[in-house]
Structure formats: C-alpha cells, structure tokens
Amino acid sequence: MLLRDVEYGDIDAYVRMRCDPAMMAELGGPLPREGMEAKVRRDVRRAEAGTDWTKMILPDEAEPDVVAGTVALWSHGADAERISEIGWMVLPEFQGRGLGKQGVRMLLELARDDGRWGLIHAFPATANAPSNGICRTLGFRFLDEEEVPFAGRVLRTNHWAIDPRTDLVRDRRPADPRA
User: Fold this and answer.
1) How far is residue 116's CA from residue 104's CA, in Å, rounded to a whole number?
2) For the chain, what is the domain count?
3) For residue 100, what are the CA distances in angstroms to 68, 72, 133?
C-alpha cells in the first residue's frame, strides 16, 4: 500500500466518495456533484503548500491509478482553540481489507516524524463502527460524544484524540518467525 498527495486527476475518486449516498450515509448524506473540482483544486493547493495533508490511498504500488480512498490531516479553529484533525474514507470495494487503518497509521507516523501537528483529533459518526474501531486499535483516546458541523450539517460523533509522538499503538501482529 502507498499514500500519495492528492492530484487534479482525483476528481472521479472524490465524486465516488463524497457524492454517493452509501459512502456519505454517516456524514449526513451525499454532497452535490458541482463543487467537487473546486474541492480537489483547494486540496491540491493546500497539499502543495504543506498546510494540509490530503493523501490518496493506493492499495497496490504497481497500480498507481487505482485509488481505494483518502486520508487527510488538517488544522482548523481560532488560534486559542486550533486543533489538528484527521479523517478518512475508503471506497466500498476496498473496505474490509484494513486499508483505512493502514492509511491512518501511515499518516499518523508521518505526523509523528514531522512533529508540528501535536494532538490529533478524529470525529467519526457514533454509528460508524469501522472508523471508531480504527481509532480504538491505533491508540486514540475516547474523549466524548459531540455534535460537530460538517458541510452545513450537524453530525453526532465520537471525539477521539491521539498524540502520535507518544500514543500510537505499535502493530500488534506477531513478528514473522522467518525474519
């Protein structure tokens, strides 16, 4: 698996993730198709500037055009209340393979090594068992249930936080005895 920065050609993946009723069920429903080009352009600009990290999840390095989803890290809020937030989406045909968890882990490791993000928050919907499971298994701490704004909607979420410098759980799989 590989993470790469979002590119202008990722519009189709954005549409599949953000405009599909099933993909957006936990996020208040699909977003309108119009505006996706602007969203991709904005994300590319922010990735190029280094202010946000929007990474596309590529399940196979040998197939760089196959996108399984996205994982992103960004900061928002007023100076005194500024927080770093992580979010992810995995397309249906790639779900259940651990790609979301692996992508989140990889981005948290990059954030740990970068050192500027501090405490990182995640806000999966309370009913989103797979995303809450990712938070739990990677070492996020559950803080509370909260209502958070998203795309003009208010969502009921679980608020998780992790300091990747100290809290990121190492992979719990047994070591390969052949190694």
Assistant:
1) 17
2) 1
3) 9, 11, 11
